[in-house]
Each structure stands twice: as C-alpha cells, then as structure tokens.
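Minimal example, chain plus shikimate-3-phosphate.
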Amino acid sequence: MTVLTAAPTQGLHGSVRVPGDKSISHRALMLGALAQGTTTITHFLASADCLSTLEALRALGVPITYGAQQVVVHGGTGLKPAHLSLNMNNAGTATRLLMGLLAAQPFTSKLFGDASLSQRPMTRVTSPLATMGAKITTEDGHLPAVIHGQQLQAIDYTLPVASAQVKSAILLAGLQAQGTTVVREPLPTRDHTEKMLQAFGATVNVSADHHTVKLQGGQLLTGTAVAVPGDMSSAAFFIAAATLVPHSQVHLPSVGVNPTRTGFLEVVKRMGGRVEVTPVETPGEPQADLVVTAASLQPIELTAKDIPAVIDELPLVALLAAHADGVSHIHGAEELRVKETDRIQTIVSELRKLGVAITEYPDGFAVDGRQTQTVLDPEVDSHGDHRIGMMLAVAALVVERPLVLKDAEAMTVSYPDFLDDLAQICQEA
Ligand code: S3P
C-alpha cells in the first residue's frame, strides 16, 4: 500500500525528463536483433516491459550490452532457439511483435506471460500470421503460445481493429516473407515500426492517407543509432497533473511528438489546457520541449476517429473530464477493454471511489465534471495496471484527503521512478 498525498498549495514546479518511449524501445531492440551490425540505443526505457523484450532476445542468442547510458545490440549473429520458454511478463507489445518476428525463424519458440497478459487476445495476431503460413498454437487464442517457425508468404491484410501491435507483427513477419506484404488500417495507428524500418535501411511505402503500408520481403536491415524520445504517454501524467493543480508550471524536455502519438496534447488544448510546444532538432523521431501551465477545463467529446492517437492516455482524459465544467463523452474506445486491465471498468470503478460522476458505456464513458466530488473510499487500486496506478497518483493531487494505492509496483511496467519524479515537482517552489 502506498500513500498518495495532495499537491502543495503553491502548485507543481520544475522539470522532468521523462523516460524513453516504450513503443520505440521495444522496436529498437527487435530491429537491432534482425539487423547486420551494431545498433546503439540511447535513452532506452529501462522498465519491466522493455526488459522483458531485452531478456527474450538475449535468450534467443542475441548479444546485447546493457549500460545506463546506452544499450548496444550486436546484430548479425542471427537468432537461435531459446533453451527455455520466453517469459513476457506483462508486455503485450513485446509478445505480439515477437510473434511476428519469430513466426519466420527456422526454429520453435514458446512464449508465456503473467495472469493479465494471459487473458489478452492473441488471435488478432495469430490469425493473419497463419494466413502467411505461420504455425502458432495458443490456449484458445491466449498465451502460452508455441511458435513453429516457417517460411512465410506475403499477405494483403485489412486490420479489423486499428492496432499498431498487429500491424507491426505483420510487418516483422512480412520483412522475412516471400513477396510484398500490404497492411491496411481502418484508422492510422502509431507508425514507429514503419519509421524505424526505414531508419534501418528498408524501403517502406506508406500511402498519402497513412492507411496502407507496403513492405517487400527479404530486405536486409543495417544496424543504426536510435535516439529514443521521451515517452509522450509518460509525459501525459505530468501534463495532466500540471493542468489540474492550480499555480503549476512544469517543463518536460525532449518528449516524442510523432503525430500518431499526440492525441492527448490535442485533447488538452481542446479542453482549454495550456501546453507550449517547442520543437527540438534531433535525428530520428520528432521531439519537442513542453511547458504546461495550470488551466481550467471545458468538457470534450471523443469518437472512434480520435481514439488511436490517445488510446493509452484515456484514463487521464477521464480524470481531466472529472475536473471540466460540463459533461464529457468518450465513445469508440472499446479497445480499452483488452488492455492490461479492462480499462473502462477500472477507470469507472476507481474514479467512482473519488466521488466522480462517471457512467460506463460499452465503448467508453461519460463524466460530469460539475458534480461536487467527495472521496467515498480512499483505498484505490491499480488492479496491476501501470497506467491506472499513475492516473490515480495524479488524481490524488487534487482530492481533499490522502489516498492509499494498492499495487503501486505496477508502475514499473513503463515508469519505475514515476512517484519519485512526481514528488520532485511537488517539492520545488
Ligand atoms: C502499442 C500499440 C497500442 C498501445 C500500446 C503500445 C505499440 O496497442 O495501446 O500501449 O507499441 O504498438 P494496440 O496495438 O493494441 O492498439
């Protein structure tokens, strides 16, 4: 149990360099493993999820040197059969991307995960991979999975749900398949895999509307230097905190601002939040310095087309909506039900404990920020979900009494030092 206290009356002040982007850190390791030559990764996210990828690749025979300043992947040796099953712990991205990568390797691999990961749907990945010729068995569409590597054929596939994980799994398989793979998305999702394949020397064709990606199989990758930007999905907790706590001003240097990831910035601005964005010159994915100032908020309406760019920040959208002057409606977010927890359920149950007027929909929620909020139950629970835990730590800043958080350790999945970094901006005058 971790005690969460309110923000100081002078507000939040200071600067936080948020850890590296989780999506990009996973991909840098995997492409580095497939590439010829050395890949150096700076500002790598040393969190439980990314370390699961790192350890899995090491178990597959990839030499990786891990240092505080940089991670070096020594590519070119190829992957070898692992002696043991690969423990993916809580890491959904790692699992789904590795399925695509391993489906084309000439050996058998086994993947398993923790209780939460073992409940998450894998058929969305195994089904298109099977069409490519992959031989993957699961427990009724769930982990554990056994992947019998095969020579794969290219596929032309239309994703039934907008998912960067599924798109990326197919691209990693397609890179190693015969022919040209085409992935069509109902809505554009994060494009880190496409961008990173290009940085490693592959040719990737993306349609002007960003809905279709084409990749010729058999292209060789060359190791490169990857500078990982700060994770927008981690920065979002401080953006929300500084917006909600009166008198705050917080600096967030070098945050990734790939347009497929900045939905939360747009939402905050549409709600009346104040975030100054100053681009910084860097190689690789775009980055910017952010300055966030406290603001009062208006309600917002989000529908399916808005969701992919803000999918991981929707717990925070609910929290901001709880402090907006009106009723917000979020629809088209049914994918939240298959995240680390059923996030619609966990957002609703935990915010209700804080007295928030929130209504659950099958595909989202409505929040009336005008209702007076009184803590009904100070014992809140991350339910083992890192983003729910961190959202609750931000929520605690603006309630009238301390909260007690169950399973704060879940935060180690994406941001091990989150509570320390939050405490630091609570202390600076
Ligand atoms: C991710 C894609 C998204 C996102 C997840 C990371 C990725 O998942 O929610 O946190 O790195 O590709 P889906 O592909 O399931 O939408």
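The pocket of shikimate-3-phosphate is lined by residues 23, 93, 163-165, 168, 190, 311-312, 335 (CB under 6 Å). The chain is about 30% helix and 25% strand.
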